[in-house]
Amino acid sequence: MGIKVLIVDDNRVNLRLLQEILEDEGFVTQCINESTKVIEAAIIFKPDIILLDIMMPVLDGFEVCKLIKQNSELYNIPVIMITAKTESTDLKRALELGAFDYIKKPVDEIEVVARIYSAYNYKTINDKLREMAIRDGLTGLYNHTFLLELFQVELDKAKRINSNIAFLMIDIDYFKSINDTYGHMMGDVVIREISALLTDTVRTGDIIGRYGGEEFSIVLTEVTNEQALDICDRIRKNVEQHVFEVNGNSIKVTVSIGVCLKKSQSTASKNDIIKIADIALYEAKKSGRNKCEMTII
């Protein structure tokens, strides 16, 4: 699929002109002529670039750009402002609000295409750098910081679509004794292979990260109580049945899991949910390990 561009302008003639220019170039476009519908449309369409007119009723382009940059699902999409205004103060304001670039009206076909490609190339490079920065070096899973960013994104989405969400805290039982007995190389093997087992066990769309040390976390989206417990049980059994091997040593390992399942009507925050999941994990370890404890809020 080609580069996706969301075009926002209250003037239908301008929309049609830009759409024709971009589609002739092979871009995939969607047009919006009401500024109040931009955020919802962008979340659904998932554009690579947003072309945004400044002069619009209700919400002007400045206000829309600000909302885009405040949205956890949209903030890294390059916004190119389109304006007939030539005052440097307006252009300065647009850039300060997070706009990537601007195009002056009347638009030039070659300039529009060139600036979109420039923004897309920037986004591609930035996405690659971001991917390197958000991954844990040992496991390839999301690191702690980005895991929590994604968790907030999913919390916002769950609120918008009125669905349940669950946060799992997973800890390797007696991990210190594994390192002390077999060495850190075996410890690294256990962490890497458990990360692979987690990836193979969860559903497509669920989010897995290394929370820190020997702890992992998983965000289960649009999940029921029964589904969350079933996934936890499968994780626990898959780890328990796996044989970890390094340098001629074969060992068995178990994990304990704490879960906080937030129902759609709950107003609990990200930090509240993590704290509750951590307490549930403590209870799982305190009551014997190799088990799951779930709290529903």
UniProtKB/TrEMBL annotation:
Residues 163-297 form the GGDEF domain. Pfam families: GGDEF (PF00990), Response_reg (PF00072). Residues 4-120 form the Response regulatory domain. Keywords: Phosphoprotein. SUPFAM superfamilies: CheY-like, Nucleotide cyclase. The modification 4-aspartylphosphate is found at D53. May play the central regulatory role in sporulation. It may be an element of the effector pathway responsible for the activation of sporulation genes in response to nutritional stress. Spo0A may act in concert with spo0H (a sigma factor) to control the expression of some genes that are critical to the sporulation process. This is Stage 0 sporulation protein A homolog. It comes from Clostridium omnivorum.
